Amino acid sequence: MSHSPVRPDGLPLSLAQLDRCAVMGIINVTPDSFSDGGRWLESSTAIDHGFALMADGADLVDIGGESTRPGAERIPEDEELRRVIPVVSALAQQGVPVSIDTMRASVARAAVEAGAAIVNDISGGAADETMYAVVAELGVPYIAMHWRGFSNEMEQLANYENVVHDVIAELMVRVNAAQAAGVDPRRIVIDPGLGFAKKAHHNWELLRQFHRFTELGYPILIGAARKRFLGSALAIDGEPRPVEQRDAATDAVTVLSATHGAWCVRVHSPRGSRDAVCVVQAWKGGDES
After folding, report:
1. Does residue 115 surpass a pLDDT of 50?
2. pLDDT (tens digit per residue) in 266-275
3. Which of 142, 146, 200, 265 is spaced 20 to 30 Å from 219 by Cα?
4. Average pLDDT of span 133-153
5. Whose CA is closest to 146, among 108, 128, 172, 178?
6. pTM for the complete prediction?
7. Could you give the CA distance from residue 89 to residue 215 in angstroms, rounded to a whole number?
8. How far apart are CA 261 and CA 239, in angstroms?
């Protein structure tokens, strides 16, 4: 078991120096995200939330202006820009490491120009054919997630012959296309896309075979935060655990992800996951104090 996860090149110094799994805090600047839609829609509250996430143990924050919950419809580009750019700019100016969660190359470019250090594209470049060229030009780390279609259709796309084999094969098509377009392979992060065109048993199988992803040699991001498959696992009498009561389960996934070499976990409530990755690091022998 490796003491340090594989990490991408090109990270801000505070992230490049980490010898443990990083914790990414989520800021949904949206009215309709499944967990916290509407809470951080105003720029001022989103900015304050970013500072609160960092104070609560996040190593970086991920800012998204477009909901990707199942069934969500797309928003216009100008609305996405209006939501995210003031938040990215304000946090980056205060030294907060920021990733931009977007499927649009134009938003990725504007966000990086405003101070974002990472592009997190849940479509892996499939939603915007210009994304790879823009990321290659910007030279920032690029998170490519396994994705089969937009939120309003992904429920119908959760069919696999062998979910681990299929996800890896489809994800590597995107990774290879990114590299062919000039994206530095040392700056690519892969994300198996838990909950995106996946049923509960698909998500668990992907996690059970985590080693298949680490064997690919790329840094790995895991986003399990408060997702439906965790609620189902905690169900009582067939009633899933409510969204706001899934943080302990999220932290458990963090422990297992960090133990198996994940570079980063993406969570709504960072304190428990930050504690978890520190315990994992000490257990591995990374803290000799």
Report:
1. yes
2. 999 999 999 9
3. 200
4. 93
5. 172
6. 0.92
7. 36
8. 33
State the catalytic residues.
227, 266
pLDDT tens-place string over residues 58-73: 999 999 999 877 667 7
Indicate whether 40 pLDDT > 60: no
Please check whether residue 150 is in contact with residue 127, taking contact to mean a CB–CB distance below 8 angstroms: yes
Percent of the chain with pLDDT over 90: 75
Q: In what order do the strands lie in the sheet with 22-28?
A: 188-191, 142-145, 118-121, 98-101, 60-64, 22-28, 264-267, 221-222
Widest pairwise Cα distance in the chain: 52
Q: How far apart are CA 37 and CA 18, in angstroms?
A: 31
pLDDT score of 153? 79
What per-residue confidence (pLDDT) applies to 230?
Answer: 86
List the one residue out of 167, 117, 162 whose CA is nearest residue 138: 117
Residues 78, 44 contacting (CB under 8 angstroms): no
